[in-house]
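Entry 14. Structure prediction run on the chain below.
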Amino acid sequence: MKRTAFATAAAATLALVTGGIAAAPAIFAQGAPQIPGMMDASRVTAGTYALDAGHTLVSWNVSHFGFNDYFGLFGNITGTMTMDPANIEAATFDITIPVAEVTVASAGLKDHLLRAGKDGGAPDFFGPTPGMAKFTSTKVVKTGATSANVLGNLTLNGKTAPVMLAVDFVGAGANPFNKKETVGFHARALMDRTQWGVNYGVPLVGKDVTLTISAAFEKQ
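Output returned:
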């Protein structure tokens, strides 16, 4: 009886898995598909690109009491890049981040991040209706064959201050689903949050925030 039940369950599982593969896009049905994106700068063409909001993320981490780091995440990021691979230092970036959609593991912390100030005062962090954070590049400096520093102004919490992103090219190619030319980058930045008026908890909670960025741009 147990063997029959096991065989029936195994057959059902096999049918489910096989049906799932058959229903999947052709790229996943191949035995060993070629990865669409490659670290080959010759694949990048000049033009205007828009962020792939579904696959672009900005994570942040900050020291918590000096014991360890706490992590958070921003998604649904939009923006544009204009770039000519023959003149990288003329590239421009204009990025918008929805602060109100911040993601953290603790529901209590998210409530605090978006909580109104006490008795009509200023909020500890962003408040219940924070404006969009915006980054606009002002200068690009090539630092290697596939890397550059992107300098610009970050507007956050009603204040604007300079930030530098250390950017590395990751890969380029055609997205297998929508066929758009796509270019991907990783970047890191360090910001002193007090420059944007986010002073709560300093120095017990670190004032220096590390940003780690994974961005995909699609050619328009």
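The CA atoms of residues 25 and 165 lie 36 Å apart.
Filed with the rest of this week's runs.
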